[in-house]
Amino acid sequence: MDGVKLHDLRCFDAVASRGSFQAAAQALHRTHPSVFAAIARLEEQLGLTLLDRSGYRVSLTDEGRLFHARAQLAIRELEHLRTYADQLASGEETVLRVVLGDVCPRPAILSLLSRFFAERPRTRLHLDYEAISGPVERLMDGEADLIFHRANPSDPHLERIDLREVAFVPVVAPGFLPFEAVSNVTPEAMRPFTQCVIRDTARRPSSENFFVIDGAHSCSVPDHMMKKELILHGLTWGHLPEWLIEDELRDGRLISIAGRHIPGRNETVAAVRRRDRPHGPVAEALWRHLEDSPKLPG
C-alpha cells in the first residue's frame, strides 16, 4: 500500500459509485483521462484488477467490490482526520466536557445543549452526571469545562449564569406515615422512618448536610429518579425537585409534608465555569448561547 494516493482512492470511489469514468470525472471536476490514469495507477500499485472494463459500462470485479467497501471507510477516516487537524490548527475544541448536577432540570438543560451542538457537529459533547459536591469538584480539578449545578456565588474562582430556581419538596407516598401527613410534622416525628438521600459523587466529599435528619436511618441513591421511585413505592421519604414530581403531587401519588419544621428549599441552578481558566472558541460560544437564552421555565 506504500505510495497509494488519496486522490487515486477518491477517483476509484467515484467511478465505483457512479458507474462510469465520465460521470466520476464530472463529479470530481477532473478530466476523463486523469481519472482513468488514477485508477490504472491504483490497480498497478495494488496488483489487483478493480474494474471490469469489458462491457458497455464499467463494473466492479469481485476484488474491486471488496476493496471498495474498505476504501470508502479509509476515505471517510482521512476526511475526519483532516477536519480534526483543521480544528486543532484553528484552536477550536474537538471535545467539550459538560457535567450535569443532581439539582438541574435535565429536560430543559438537554434541550439547550441540543440546539447548540446541532450547529457544531465538529465538536463532540462529552456529558457526565455528578451529585452534591461532585460537579464543582470536577470543575475545580480541571475535568470539566462547564457544569450545570448550584455553586457558591461568592466564590471568586467561578462565574455563573443563573438559569432557574428549583424548589425541593419533602414528600411521602400515601399510607407511608401512620399519622396524617400535615404541615406541622416535626423532624422528631420523622426520625423512625427511612430517609432517602443522594450520594455525593465527589472524591473529597464535603460536610454539607442537605435535609438530613440527625439520627434517622437513611438509604442513598445515585440520582433523583431512583429516589422518586423508592418514595413512590413507600420505601422511604425525602426531598425531591418540584419539576420532577408535579404530576404526582397533583394526582395524589405523592404528598407534601413541607412546613415550618421540615421546610422545602430553593436552589438556583446555574451554568458555572472557571473564571481563572482560558476558554476555547466553542466554550465561549456556548457561554454566549446560555447568556442569550431566555431563563428556563420554572
TrEMBL record:
Query: Which residues belong to any copy of the HTH lysR-type domain?
Result: 4-61
Gene3D superfamilies tied to this protein: 3.40.190.290, Winged helix-like DNA-binding domain superfamily/Winged helix DNA-binding domain (1.10.10.10)
Q: Which UniProt keywords apply?
A: DNA-binding, Transcription, Transcription regulation
Q: Name one GO molecular function term.
A: transcription cis-regulatory region binding
InterPro entries per record: LysR_HTH_N (IPR000847), LysR_subst-bd (IPR005119), WH-like_DNA-bd_sf (IPR036388), WH_DNA-bd_sf (IPR036390)
Q: Which PROSITE patterns match?
A: HTH_LYSR
Provide an example Pfam family for this protein. HTH_1
Which family does the record assign? Answer: Belongs to the LysR transcriptional regulatory family.
Q: What is this protein called?
A: LysR family transcriptional regulator
Naturally occurring in which organism (per UniProt): Mesorhizobium atlanticum
